[in-house]
Each structure stands twice: as C-alpha cells, then as structure tokens.
Write a structure and sequence with these properties.
- β10 and β11 form a beta hairpin.
- The relative contact order is 0.20.
- 37% of the residues lie in helices and 18% in strands.
- The chain is built from nine helices and eleven strands.
- By secondary structure, the chain is α+β, with helices and mostly antiparallel strands.
- The strands form four sheets. The protein has a five-stranded antiparallel sheet, sandwiched between helices.
C-alpha cells in the first residue's frame, strides 16, 4: 500500500474482509466529507426499507441545483433514465437527490446511524439538507478507517446479485470508478469527489473491495476521485497474482 501511494499525499487503509483486521495503513489519516462513496451505504438501506425499489426510474437532465449549489451530473449523456443499479454505477446525483426526497428525516438519521459514520443529527433535516447528506457533501464526515469499516459491514450482508453489488461492480467495470479496474479481477468500488465546508479545493476518495479478500479505501487531498481510483488500481494490481481470473 505504501508503494502504491508513494510520491503522493494520499492516505489509505486495507482491511481483511473476513476478520476486519487492518492489513495495511499508509499516509497521514485525514477526515473529510465522503462524497459519492456514501451513496451505496444509503442505497442499500433505502432498498431494504422500501424507500426506493431496484427499478425506480429517474430522468436525469444532468443539471442539478441544491441550496444554491450547482451539482451537475458528469456521467455520459446517452443514458438519461436511471435505475438503482445504473445510477450507482454512473453516480447520478439527480437519481440520489430524488432518493433523498423519499427519505423521511428520521429514516435518514437511522440510515446514517447504521453506517457508524460521524454525522449531524438528521431527525429534523429539511429536503435540501437530506439531499446534500445523501450525496455525501454535507453533514457527514469519515476517515479512511471509518469508511473502510462501513464498506466491510455493507459487504457482509450485501446480496451478491442485488442492485448495489451489481452497481458497485459496474462502477469499476464501466462507470465512474473505472480507473480502479484490473483486467480479469472482480472489484466492487465507488469513487467520490467533494470539498469540505469552507474549502475551495476538492479531495478524492475510492472505497471498494476484492470480494471475500480485502477492503480498500484511498483518500487524496487537493485532488479528485479519478486519482484516488488510479492509486487503488496500483494496489490491486500489486496484490493480485498475474493470471488470476474472476
């Protein structure tokens, strides 16, 4: 992990998915808003509790404004209608902003409590506050270790053929986390780019796993999620023997 992150300001952590033991830690751990890496955690809760369905469709115009903030979608424009799986793979902010509308404030508070991430109380949150929280842009913070533990917990009970697992795999195979892909290796992952309140510069996240083996989180200050995913790819390439297939 230290070699994969070498020459950068990034920090990262790798956990044994089976035991939760820390396998490796590198760089100076920092906290930050998690950006879109929060989406799969809240999506699984929403699916389990009937807040959205796998086939819930949302039309995306690629322009989104919440509380005076422009949050345009950066996914390809050739697919304007998203379901849970495709919205996760392509990180459609519009779809997840609609999901946030469907959460009641107490439901969102319960969902965030289930992640064990530090967050502002959401019991009385208005629509915009819920949307920004679901998008991982406000009200929630994480360290690499905390996010890695949240993903390990998610993977422990995630249906392998469900929309969240498929969306996370699609994110790496063809979606927003594609820079982390390693040929012939199944990787579930999600990226996120966000800026902390009052900060102009963004930071980048990658959170994901080689299922059944290792959970990895990479945080890169003053950067974006593409860089975080590239560093994750370096790590995955280093730990997967040549010729290993899915």
């Amino acid at each position: 992990l230290a070699l994969a992150l070498g020459g950068t300001q990034a920090s990262g952590i790798a956990l044994d998915q089976q035991t939760g033991a820390v396998l490796a830690s590198a760089g100076v751990s920092r906290r930050g808003v998690p950006g879109s890496t929060l989406k799969p955690l809240l999506l699984e809760y929403a699916l389990e509790h009937g807040i959205v369905r796998p086939g819930t469709e949302v039309y995306c115009r690629r322009t989104l404004h919440i509380g005076g903030r422009a949050l345009p979608c950066s996914h390809p424009a050739n697919q304007p209608v998203f379901t849970a799986e495709s919205a996760l793979a392509q990180s459609c902010n519009t779809w997840f902003a609609e999901m946030a509308r469907r959460f009641s404030s107490p439901q969102l508070e319960a969902a965030l409590q289930a992640t064990h991430l530090q967050h502002h109380a959401m019991n009385a949150a208005n629509v915009e506050e819920r949307q920004l929280a679901v998008l991982g842009l406000s009200g929630v913070t994480a360290s690499p270790l905390e996010l890695a533990r949240a993903y390990r917990d998610l993977l422990a009970h995630l249906p392998p053929d469900g929309p969240v697992a498929r969306g996370l795999e699609g994110s790496v195979d063809y979606g927003m986390a594609n820079h982390a892909a390693v040929a012939g290796v199944t990787i579930l992952g999600k990226t996120g780019t966000a800026s902390d309140p009052g900060q102009a510069r963004t930071h980048g996240w990658f959170a994901g796993a080689i299922p059944g083996r290792v959970v990895l989180v990479v945080y890169v200050p003053n950067s974006d999620s593409g860089v975080a995913a590239q560093l994750a790819q370096r790590f995955f390439q280093a730990i997967v023997p040549q010729g290993q297939s899915r």
